[in-house]
Structures are given as structure tokens and as C-alpha cells.
Amino acid sequence: MTAAMKAIGLRQYLPIDHPESLIDLTLPVPEPGAHDLLVRVEAVSVNPVDAKVRGQHSSPPAQPRVLGWDAAGTVAAVGSAVTRFAVGDAVYFAGDITRPGSNAQFTLVDERIAGPKPRSLDFAQAAALPLTAITAWEALFDRLGLQSEPAAGSPQHGQTLLVIGAGGGVGSMAVQLAVSAGLTVIGTASRPESQAWVRELGAAHVVDHRQDLRAQLDALGVGEVDHLLLLAGTDAHFARIPALLRPQGLACGIVENAAPLDLRPLHARSQGFVWEMMFARSMYRTPDMAAQHALLAEVARRIDAGTLRGTLREVLGPITADYLREAHRRIESCHTTGKLVLAGW
């Protein structure tokens, strides 16, 4: 007889205020494939992608759908080809958006995109990290081509990076990683509490993205920046890029646009724009898929060494449909700072 587990998911895509937008479910415990870890989930984090997928306007799924792409837990079983982990290991991961998510007592994750949980963090603290750490790391070091540990004398030291949306989950990691890579970071935030948070993470300056950004940069004596991360409001901020970024500079975005983006203003200044999508490696089984395992192992090393800090802001409660709906409500408000986590069953 197949073992059963608790899970939270959906049978139809509904607004978060609907009582059945996320519901408690009982589902079979999944069986690991060759490269899979079966993980007993101890804590999960909630990200904008969770709310976006839940709120999509499409036909109901054929089977109940479990969301959630951030988790920490313990390996309960391994597939036949697994070499990086063993039963009993503590892990953290963001998973694969094409597979059932982590809002369940047990979930499957390919070992190549999982990392060893930081030893100095509990499961709730660890669950807050993976998706945002992967996104920030890939955006800075894979997409923008920056060095994560530049050598002494590298021209990267002192270069400027503007992070639009620095107070959110990805921004909270990007600011820290960029500062450790020798960059002078200017973060944007609009509320006093988020501005204070961004300064606490190491940003040299904080400006308000609701105001004229170029005027604020000029007033600081910064002017055009060397690099730009667009982590929020792509449609609202994309047209600002040419005036904010130096000629031949590169910008990276993570949030899908709703309307077409006009690339022509970038042309005269030879500026570039590139997307970061942290699920691309797992979705397309790219040859470098295991880079995310190495990335998460490095993040864990830095956390344990005290050179990188976690971004958990609040544990809302245990992993239930009621608490998960509340987390989705807060994410959809666009006023969260740091990360929201649910822990325990």
C-alpha cells in the first residue's frame, strides 16, 4: 500500500481571498527517480513565483497541483544514481518549476540542484535562502559576468551597481553578494523600513525608485552606474535604463514584462539587457545543471563562515493552507521585506 502524506495545493487557479485557492490535501508519497532525493520537508519559504503560478488564469490542472519552490529538510531516500547525498543529510533547494513543489511533507528534488543545508542555520532560516540566493548569484556572476571573488587590483573593485528593488528577497541577497565582490551598491527602496534594511545589508546608498532615479544618482555624485539589476517593476522601470547605465553597460532583469519592451533606446549607447531565470537549468536539463548544487554549497559555506547573512524576516506558523494563504496575500501586497517562512507540520 502506498504511503500517504499531507500537502497543500490547488484544484483550480483562484484569487488568494477565495477559501479554496490553497487547500489541505492528502497525496501519495512520491518515488525517487535515478537522480532524485526524496526529502522530508521541515520548512518552506514563499516567493512571488508561488503567487504568480497560483493566480494564473488557465484551465484547472488535471491533478491537484502542489506549489512551493523553496524548502529545507532531511533526505529520506535516494535514487539509484545519486552520489552527492545520503539518507539523513540535511539539504536546502529551490527545486524545479516543472515538477510538484515543496508544500508537502515529502518532495522530490534532483540532487544536482540541491545543496547541503548551512550547518549554522535551522531549517526555517535555511528555507528562506535557495531561490533568492540562486537568482542573485546567477544574475550577478553568470548573466552580468561579474567575478564572485575578484583578485586584488581587479577593476571590478569600486564599480557601481544599481539594484532596483533591493529590499525584496532577491535584492537582499544581491546586495550582500555584490558588496562582497567589491562593488559599490546603490539600492532602491521606497519605505523607511525597507530603506533601513538595504543599508543594513551593506548598500553604500539607498534611493527611492518612486522618484527620479537619475536625479538622485547625480545628487549623490554617482551619475551613470556600471551595472544594473532590475528586480521589480520591469514595465515601469525598463525605459529608465538608458539614462541610468553607462555606455556599453549591461542590465539584468528577473521579472517578466507584461507589455513589449522597446530595446531601441539601448542601441545608441551599445547597452545590453539579459534575463535571469533560475529555473532555466532544471527546466531544460542544461549540461551545467549541477552548477546550482555548487552554488548552494558555496552559499552555505559563506553563511557558516559569517560572510553572508540569512534573510528570514518572519516565520508565520506551521505548513498549513491557512498560513500559506496568508503568506501569498503578503507576497501579493508587494510590501514584504526579506523572506516569509512556514515551518513544521
Number of helices: 12
Estimated radius of gyration: 20 Å
Overall CATH class of the largest domain: Alpha Beta
Please, what is the CATH homologous superfamily of the largest domain?
Medium-chain alcohol dehydrogenases, catalytic domain
| Uncertain ranges | none
CATH topology assignment of the largest domain: Quinone Oxidoreductase, Chain A, domain 1
Order of helices and strands: EEEHEEEEEHHEHEHEHEHHEHEHHEHE
Which structural class best describes the helix and strand composition? alpha/beta
Describe this structure in words.
The longest helix is centred in the last third of the chain and has 15 residues. Helix 3 packs across helix 4. Helices cover 29% and strands 26% of the residues. The mean pLDDT is 95. With 345 residues, it is α/β, with parallel strands linked by helices. The protein contains 12 helices and 16 strands. Strands 3, 5, 6, 7, 8, 15 and 16 form a 7-stranded mixed sheet that branches. Strands 11-10-9-12-13-14 form a 6-stranded parallel sheet, with helices on both faces. A 3-stranded antiparallel sheet has the order 2-1-4. The protein folds into 2 domains: 185 residues, Medium-chain alcohol dehydrogenases, catalytic domain (Quinone Oxidoreductase, Chain A, domain 1, Alpha-Beta Complex), CATH 3.90.180.10; 143 residues, Rossmann fold, CATH 3.40.50.720. Helix 9 links the parallel strand 13 and strand 14.
